[in-house]
Write a structure and sequence with these properties.
heterodimer, A: 329 residues, two-stranded antiparallel ribbon, globular, B: mainly alpha
């Protein structure tokens, strides 16, 4: 009896060791070690580790929204613009005298509505999500400039400041804690609920999903709105941290969600991957960009590095897919 | 026979598009007669030629079912490389040739990633775009590079004192591409590959080879746009101009280039370029803030994509009607 259990644990362990997640964890450890050595230990000082954690909050939100969409086989390239727009909007209505709680609610609803509009454009005319969301991005960028009116908008709110910059027990950034908690919740929804399983079903085989009574279109409306919701959270987090909203906003991080998701094994084809992998992808991404800053690479050249990292992730994804196809064949 | 041909032209989507363009221009002209002054038209021509040149490369890729979202970065990269080469003392002709060659290498890299490794081109070219933009900013430290070379300033001159040289370059390219598309085997193969890759393969074509040529072509054309821009401004700017790429895509799709491949031609593309640019320069003339132009061009892209979708569906329906008709007449089917 215990023998079979042991055997089963062993197989699970074996499967884990050859899995992509394990390879990614190894990559993460190697990367950290390399940065620690090159930076002569600065990289692993507690202060820097906290920096990494708090930098993960924004990309975590972006990853969560995009990951869900990608599992269902769709994509959103407008997260940078929608997050920036929501952050800008929040700063604007706070300055106009809105109380904090209604302002936050309205901003988050705005994010979800933007996502819904994305879904509307994609579904009503069968337009490929990547180009549809690029087009809506352009519209949103216009609105960002419109609201900003060539200025940054300052935000001074103690609650937002605590959320953006505050630390729990001196070492745990509050915003990162919220973002990770959301990740755990999504992980549970994905694996333990029927809705979560339906997301995989839609991504893996839309026709089969339809036959099983799941409506892929309805699903895409829900998931695009969710993605807009998380983009809004990312935008709010940045505004809380900087205590001001600028037109650049989170646009520099716009592809981080996708990079982290793909690194973490969420395939572009849909139907695979999960939050644990996405978290590892996020770790690698954040380590990578923080490490480059610590060892003194200028932000300009970091663009090159992040582009290469995305290419690396995409290539791994394709190779993985090919391997799976070969195994099935 | 001739009357039918005329009727067909009048009924076509292109005629409608041309009509819309004329209406747009007329409307802005009524608001402000200065809109059609020589200076204003020349300004519009100069502005449209950069996005126009980029639109041509993208249109060719679309026709065969490819896509390149690094065009803007390739354009800026072209300007920066050319500017640095000229600054280092190389004669401008050689600098231009070398820059175009660099563009070719970038295109080959895009083709390699999309076709050999099998990445989705829309996302792999975004990654390449990030890499190129990083190099642009890193090399120039995000500063403009002035190009103090009067012989290189051809981009700011006019042919016969009327037509801006960049516009002439665009028109020449349109004629060349139209010729290739309509009169050569390669052009016809481009449509077959874009229409149905499997059918193309079965009929003995090599889609990868055709797409490789088009990826290289697009990167070269985009770097050329960057060179023309640098020549016109007499300086190379490394700063982002992501709008121009979206404008180029919008112009191409607006002009009837099928986003998913297999349809469209250069005369349509030209009308798309004209419509988009006269529209946005009209908005500028109304002294609206530039963000209205940004919003409008995003909306235009969505509208263009909707037309593309309706077009595609109409074509499919026509095909279905034909097949049903054939099935109803069994004698013909054999």
């Amino acid at each position: 009896m215990s023998g079979t259990t042991q055997k089963r644990t062993l197989t699970a362990l074996k499967r884990f060791i050859v899995s992509k997640t394990a390879a990614m964890i190894l990559l993460f450890i190697l990367l950290s070690a390399a940065f620690a050595i090159i930076s002569k230990g600065i990289f692993i000082k507690p202060k820097n580790l906290v920096n990494i954690l708090s930098s993960m909050a924004i990309s975590a939100f972006l990853t969560e929204g995009v990951a869900l969409l990608m599992i269902s086989g769709k994509l959103d390239l407008s997260t940078g613009a929608s997050g920036t727009l929501c952050g800008m909007f929040l700063a604007y209505i706070l300055r106009a005298g809105f109380p904090l709680i209604p302002a936050l609610v309205v901003t988050i609803v705005l994010g979800a509505v933007i996502g819904f509009i994305n879904a509307l454009v994609v579904n009503s005319m069968d337009i490929a999500p990547f180009i549809a969301t690029l087009a809506t991005s352009s519209v949103m960028t216009g609105f960002i400039y419109l609201i900003a009116n060539k200025k940054t908008i300052d935000v001074s709110n103690p609650v937002l400041k605590y959320y953006g910059k505050g630390m729990l027990f001196d070492y745990v950034p509050v915003s990162a804690l919220v973002a990770f908690a959301a990740m755990v919740v999504i992980g549970i929804i994905l694996h333990k609920t029927e809705f979560g399983r339906n997301i995989y079903l839609v991504g893996g085989n839309p026709t089969a999903a339809m036959l099983a009574g799941v409506n892929p279109k309805k699903m895409s409306y829900i998931l695009f709105s969710t993605c807009g919701f998380f983009s809004a959270l990312a935008g709010i987090t940045l505004v809380s941290r900087l205590q001001s909203a600028s037109i650049t906003g989170i646009s520099a991080q716009r592809f981080q969600g996708i990079t982290a998701a793909v690194l973490g094994g969420i395939s572009f084809g849909g139907g695979s991957g999960g939050m644990a992998g996405a978290f590892v992808g996020l770790l690698i991404l954040s380590t990578f960009s923080n490490g480059l800053t610590v060892i003194g690479v200028s932000p300009h050249w970091q663009n090159v590095a992040s582009g290469l990292l995305l290419l690396f992730a995409l290539t791994l994804d394709v190779l993985n897919e090919k391997r799976i196809t070969n195994t099935v064949a | 026979m001739n009357v039918q041909a005329v009727k067909r032209v009048l009924k076509s989507k292109k005629a409608l598009l041309l009509l819309i363009t004329v209406v747009v221009i007329a409307a802005f002209y009524f608001v402000n007669p200065n809109y059609l002054s020589m200076d204003s038209i020349r300004g519009t021509m100069q502005r449209m030629s950069i996005t126009g040149i980029m639109a041509l490369g993208i249109a060719c890729l679309f026709i065969s079912g490819g896509i390149d979202l690094a065009s803007s970065s390739e354009c800026l990269f072209g300007g920066v490389v050319c500017g640095l080469l000229i600054k280092s003392g190389i004669p401008w002709g050689w600098a231009v040739a070398a820059t175009l060659a660099v563009g070719g290498v970038i295109g080959a890299l895009n083709a390699f990633l999309a076709l050999k490794i099998g990445l989705m081109p829309f996302i792999s070219t975004i990654a390449i775009s990030s890499v190129l933009q990083g190099i642009n900013l890193g090399v120039t430290n995000a500063q403009n590079i002035p190009i103090p070379n009067p012989t290189f300033a051809w981009g700011s001159r006019n042919l016969f004192g009327i037509l801006p040289i960049p516009f002439v370059i665009m028109i020449v390219l349109i004629i060349v591409y139209e010729y290739v598309l309509k009169r050569t085997q390669f052009g016809r193969n481009m449509y077959i590959v874009g229409g149905n890759v499997y059918a193309a393969r079965l009929s003995g074509l090599n889609p990868d080879r055709i797409l490789t040529v088009l990826y290289i072509n697009n990167a070269v054309v985009s770097t050329l746009a960057g060179i023309v821009l640098a020549s016109r401004m007499q300086s190379a700017s490394p700063l982002s101009m992501s709008d121009s790429q979206m404008d180029a895509i919008t112009a191409a799709i607006l002009g009837g280039i099928a986003f998913y491949g297999g349809g469209g031609d250069m005369s349509g593309c030209l009308i798309g370029i004209l419509l988009l640019n006269f529209f946005s320069s009209g908005l500028n003339m109304l002294a609206l803030e530039s963000y209205w132009t940004t919003i409008a061009s995003g909306l235009l892209l969505i509208i263009a994509l909707m037309f593309d979708y309706l077009n595609e569906r109409a074509a499919q329906r026509a095909l279905k009607v034909k097949t049903t008709a054939r099935a109803a007449a069994p004698g013909e089917a054999k």
